[in-house]
Structure formats: C-alpha cells, structure tokens
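Weekly modeling sync, notes
Attendees: AB, CL, MP (scribe)

Item 1: holo prediction request
CL wants a bound-state model with 1,3-dihydroxyacetonephosphate before deciding which constructs to order. AB pointed out that an apo prediction alone won't tell us much about the pocket. Agreed to run with the ligand included and paste results into these notes for async review.

Input as submitted:
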Amino acid sequence: MMRKQIAAANWKMNLTLQQGEQLINDLLAKPHSLKENQQAIFAVPAPYLMMAQEKLGNKERVAVAAQNCYSKKSGAYTGEISVEMLQSIGVHYVVLGHSERREYFNESNPFLAEKIDICLANGVTPIFCCGEPLQIREAGKQNEFVGTQLNESLFHLSAADITKVVIAYEPIWAIGTGKTASSDQAQEMHAFIRAELAHQYGKETADQISILYGGSVKASNAVELFAQPDVDGGLVGGASLIADEFVAIINALK
Ligand code: 13P
C-alpha cells in the first residue's frame, strides 16, 4: 500500500465564518488535482466545523478536521469538545499536540497519549504534531527530543493502531517565522521518525505512515519539500489562508 500524501490546512484562530466560507468557495473554484493517493484536509476553528463539513464533506479525497479535542468521553468539562461530538457531525480527523497547544495550554506528552487513545477507540484519525524548539535544535538534540515525544505519546499503540495516525513534524523555530527548515533538514528528521517507527513496529508498518512537514510551507517551497522521500505532504498555517497558495500546495503533492 502506498502511503497517503496529504496537504493539511491549519487555519488556527483565524477568519470569521464569512471569511472562512469565502475561502472554501474560492478554493473549490480553482483547478486542483487530487490523485488517488492524495488528500486535502481542512482543520478549521470549532464553530466552523459544520459549515466546512457541509461544503467539503461530500468531496472525494477531502476531509475536515478539528484543531483539538478532549481526552474524556463526556461530562462536566465546560468548553471542551469530545470525540463523540466530532463523530456526530461527520468529522473524522483531529490535530493533536500542536506546539501552540503544548506551549500555551500546557499539553504534555502523557496527556496527548490519552487524547490519541480516545480518538483511535472511536475511529477518529489523529494528526499528531511533534517538533523541537530552537534551543534544542541549536544544541543538536532534536532527535532525542522528538524521539521522546513519539515514545511518550504514540509508542504504547499497537501496530494496527499506529498506522491510523498521521504524524506532523513541525520544528517550532519554523512556525510562523518565515524560516522554513531546509528540505535536507526536513528529510533528515522525517527519516529519523520513520526509523524510530520501524524500530518499534517494523519497516512495513513504518512505510505506511504519512509524515507531514509543517513550518512556513508556501507554494514556493512545497515542491522541493514534498519531493523528499520521507516527506508525505505538509501541515500549513499562514499559507492555507490564501486560496491560490493552498491550491498550489495541494498541487505540489507527490
Ligand atoms: P505556518 O505555516 O504559518 O508556519 O504554521 C505552521 C503550523 O503551525 C501548521 O500547523
């Protein structure tokens, strides 16, 4: 099985409902080609999930994602969103462990392991984010750092379950900074992540898992990044808010 190549938009906390609808309309009006092994995913703010699902839910090779969910099934957790709620509106993907959530909302590796578990138990695909801060990269300790994130949040999973996870490597120093990792730096880390997966689950399983790169992906660098053998697409912030940019990023998938 050839692993999926994915262009994922992360709108973060941007756009009004009207602007979001306009962006999706603009995207749908542009020529794009999603081949059989390719997919476009839209992680939109929670209040817009149903709108996005209505506009995109019936499109082939297109999916809508939440940007977060909670680790508990239901109950007295004011303001949180459950996996069951996502399921009930037809949303089957969720971004988990984005560095912004780790930093501003103190999400830890063990807490994310709980979120991963409840998603997989309910048939929702986590897009699990990992990646190191600048000082770790400067100290040359990025592999150790990302290895620990994988270990503590994912490696308790069975081989069958790990193949249902999408991994996004997002070096924090490249997010929103305009400073992209070079394609060599991206490939090097993606190869490391795949080697860790292979070590834990075997090569055949590791080869099935999509590993996306995130951090200042733009139309102008997507082709080179996505051409790397272990880079299976991108998780895109800023450039996903511009229709022309994101369509070009979709069209840059292998
Ligand atoms: P930018 O593409 O804006 O750097 O954001 C990357 C990101 O965090 C996607 O989740």
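Recorded for review: The longest helix spans residues 183-201.
Action items: CL to compare against the apo run; MP to circulate these notes.
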